[in-house]
Specification:
By secondary structure, this protein is mainly alpha-helical. The protein has 2 domains: about 60 residues, Arc Repressor Mutant, subunit A; about 80 residues, no CATH class. Helices cover about 45% and strands about 10% of the residues. The radius of gyration is 28 Å and the shape is elongated.
């Protein structure tokens, strides 16, 4: 078992900065100040974590950060990812750019046969539905197949209502609904 970790003896300026942190409106600064002052009093990480209702690893991270950076450990690091990955490869990006140069009228069809579709609980417009069908058609022309799925939250609500009414038991969990297939 590793020996418990504590912060070094605090200087007057560090102690003053930590006490000022106790009055901070920023929750990160407040929590870090509480952790570091408790460690300076000689409390061990699991005891600090229990008192502050947080994980022991959170306490150890704060102590290690203070050892490395001093009072600068009271400033939260950026939550921005250090590295991002492209959602589309070059070929897919070019295909999408090609689609942007088309009018919505190219996707038009009989609006009476359009069924409402929901994504994230919001209605998808008939134009979006026609666009997705047009994409499927274009893929078919290239000899490819596509199955578009829309997560239909409205369907889950209907299933939940039916099960409460005493009909056949169904689940209230949302299921994907096929939108179009080629």
């Amino acid at each position: 078992m590793k020996p418990p970790i504590f912060v070094r003896t605090l200087s007057k300026t560090e102690r003053k900065a930590l006490h000022e942190g106790l009055r901070s409106k920023d929750a990160f600064v407040l929590r870090r100040s509480q952790i570091l002052l408790a460690s300076a009093r000689g409390e061990i990480a699991p005891q600090i974590a229990e008192n502050l209702v947080c994980a022991s690893q959170t306490v150890r991270d704060a102590i290690h950060d203070f050892i490395r950076h001093g009072v600068d450990a009271l400033v939260a690091d950026s939550s921005r990812p250090k590295q991002t990955h492209a959602a589309l490869d070059t070929e897919q990006t070019e295909a999408l750019k090609e689609l942007l140069h088309h009018s919505a009228r190219e996707f038009a069809r009989d609006s009476t046969s359009t069924w409402p579709r929901f994504v994230d609980g919001r209605l998808v417009s008939p134009i979006t539905t026609r666009f997705l069908r047009w994409c499927c058609h274009r893929l078919q022309q290239r000899g490819k197949e596509a199955l578009l799925l829309i997560w239909d939250n409205a369907l889950a609500g209907i299933r939940a209502e039916r099960s409460e009414a005493g009909s056949a038991p169904t689940t209230a969990v949302s299921k994907p609904t096929a939108m179009g297939s080629v």
